[in-house]
Give the backbone structure.
Amino acid sequence: MMKTLAQAALLSPSTVTGIRESDLKPKLLEMGLYTGKTVTVLFKAPFGDPIAVDVDGYVLSMRLNEAALVLIEATDPA
Amino acid sequence: MRKLALFGNPNTGKSSLFNRLTGLKQRVGNFPGVTVDKQMGELKTGGETIQIIDFPGTYSIYPRSKDEQVVYDVISNPAHPDYPEAAIVVADASNLERNLLLFTQIYDRNIPTVLVLNMTDVAARNGLIIDFDKLQQHFPETTIVRSNARIGTGLNELIAAIHTPKKATENPQADTLIALEDTARQSADTEKRFERIRKIVKDSVQQKSKSPGQLFSAKIDRWLVHPVFGYLFFFALLLLIFQSVFTFASYPMDLIDSGFAQFSEFTANSLPEGLFTRLLTEGIIPGIGGVVIFIPQIALLFFLLAILEETGYMARVVFIMDKLMRPFGLNGKSVVPLISSAACAIPGVMATRTIHSRSERLTTILVAPLMSCSARLPVYALLIGLVIPDRRIFGFFNLQGLVLFGLYALGLVSALLVAMIIKQFFKKSKERSVFLLELPAYKAPRWANVGLEVLQKVRIFVTDAGKIIVAISIVLWALASFGPGNNMDEAAAKVPKPSVESPEAADEYNNRVASAKLENSYMGLLGKGIEPVIRPLGYDWKIGISLLTSFAAREVFVGSLATIYSVHQDDEITEPLIDRLREERYPDGRPVYTLASGCSLLVFYAFAMQCMATLAIVKRETKSWKWPLIQLGYMAVLAYLGAFITFQILS
C-alpha cells in the first residue's frame, strides 16, 4: 500500500514519488508537487481537512481528497 | 494604442503593480464571450498611451476554472482582440521555481516579455540570493526587472522596459501549447518544464538560511487556524463586519436620505409645476438617491474586505471554513458575503467576486438575498408590533423578540438549504473542483490598494447597477402616479374638503387625497388585479398595492401602507399606523390583520426578492439577466408557498 500525503504525519518531511492519474494531476504538478519534491504537513484545519503543506518554501493548502492523489515516502533523515 | 498584458501567479503583488502603473486610470470591461471582468488601465509615458490588461492571477496558462480560461484563450490565439504586443509577467522572487512555470509557458510562445521579479525584499529576508545575470543568461529574450512594490522601486526600470521590449526571436523551445482537454500531455509538459526550471534555479539562486518571514506566519497561524481561537477570532471579525455595514453605515445613509429628500423638495419648489418637474422630483431624484444610499455600506464592507485580502487572512478564512461550507455547495469564502448580506445583500453579492469557483460563486449569489437584511427590519417591526402579542414566555423570553430572531434564523437556514438544492443542479456541470490554494505569508496591507478597491467597487455599483435602479424607480413612480383616464383626479376631487382651517385638517385632507390617487393609479389597479392570487395568503388589494410598490425596496411597504390608509407616517413612530391597521375590517366585519395574515406577510417578506437594487447588482455580477430572473422566480415561489402554508395553518 502506497502512502499518500493525506496520511502523512504532522511536521515530518516526506518526498513526493508521483501523482495518481486524475483530472487534477496537472494542477497538482503546477503547484510544484513533482517527483522528488520535499513536502511537510505544517498544520491542519480544525476538522482535519484541508491541510497546509510546506512545498519547498511556500505553504500550500489542499483538501484531503487532493492530498490523497500525492504519493509519498518518508524522507531519509540524511 | 499599444496593448500590454499583465500575467502572474496569485499573491505575487501583480495587482499592486497594476495599480502603481495605472493609478486611477483604470476601468472594467468585458472579455468577449466570458463572464470575468477585464481590468484595464492606461499608462501615459513619454507621450505615448499604453493600455495594460490585468489578467486573473494563475499558476499556469492551463485553466483550473472557466474564469481562468481567458488567459489560455488570449495566449493561444494571436487573432484574439486582446492578444498583447508584449507580456509583463510578475513573479514572486521568494518562490522563483513555481513562478517560472507560467513565465516559461508565455516566454516559449514567442510573445515579447518583461519578467518582473517582485518581492525581492521578501526573498532577501528569506535568505535567498538571486544572481540576476545568471537568470538573464537563461532567458536572453526577456528583460528582467527587479521590483519591490512596498518601497516603490523598480517602476521606472519597468516602464523603460515596456518602452523597448526585446524582440522575441525564434526560440528552440517554441510553441509547446497543448489542447485544453489533453491533461496527460499537460502533466508531461509541466514535469519537463520543472526539470528545466530546477536547473535554472539551482544555477541562479542560493539559499543561505531558513526564512524568518515564514516562521513568523507559521506562529500566527498556530493561533488563527486554531480550532477554538481561530473560530473565535473569525466570528469576532464577522461581528465587526456586520456591525460596520449594519450600524456604522446607517449614519451616512440617514444623511444621504434626508439630503435627497430636501434636494427633491427644493427642486419641486424652485421649478414650475408640471409633468417634467414631477418626473424629476418624484422619479429621478429619489431614484438616484436610491443608488447613492448604498455607497456607505459598499465602501465600508470593501474597506474591511480589502484589508483581509491584502494581509493574507482571507486565505485562512477559506482554510478553516471549507469543511463546514462544502456540504452546502458553498465556498469557505462564502461566509463573508452571506454575513454581509444579513446587513445588505448588495455589498454581499459584490463580495462574492473573490470566490474562484464559478458554481460556488453563483450559489452564494443566488442564496445571499435570503439572509434577512436591514431593509426587512422596518417591515418586521411593523408586522410583529401589529400581530404578535407583547408578552413573555418561560418568564424571560419576549415573544416579539423571539419571532424576530426566528425570522433571521429562517433566512439563514433557508439560504443553506437552497444552496444544497442548487448544488444538485451544478453537479452536472463539468467544472473540476480544485481547492489547491497558496497560504501567503502575512503582511501589512498597502493602503493605496485598499483605497483603489473601495473606489472601484463603488464605481461599478453606481455606473452599472445604478442605471437599472434609476430606470426601475422611474417605472414604479410612473405606475403609482398615473392612472387610466381621469380616474385619479376624479377620485381626488371626491375627497371632502376640510371644513375647518387648521394644519391638522389640511394634513388629513392631503393624506386622503394621496390615498385616493394611489388607489386609482395603474399601481392601484394592478394591486386590485392580483387580489384573487394573494387572497389565499390572507391579503386584500390594499396589501397587494403595497407588495407591488415595495418591489423597489422592502421598507417601502410601510410607507405605502401609510399612504393607502391615509395615516401620517413618521419614520420613527409606527403606532398610529398600527392602530389604524388593527381597525381594518373586511366588509363582513372580519379583521384584515390577524395573527395568520400577519405571520403570512412576515414569511412572505423573509423569502421574497423585494429589492430592485439586488436584482440590478446580480445582473451586473453574473453578466446576464438569466440569473437574477431565476433568483426572482425561485424566491417568489418560496415566498408564495411559505406564506400560503403559514396562513392556512394559522387560520
About this structure: Chain B touches chain A at residues 59-60, 62, 64, 94-95, 97-98, 101, 126, 183, 186-187, 190-191, 194, 211, 214, 217-218, 221-222, 225-227, 230-231, 315, 318-320, 322-324, 432, 434-441 (CB under 8 Å). Chain B has a mean pLDDT of 89.
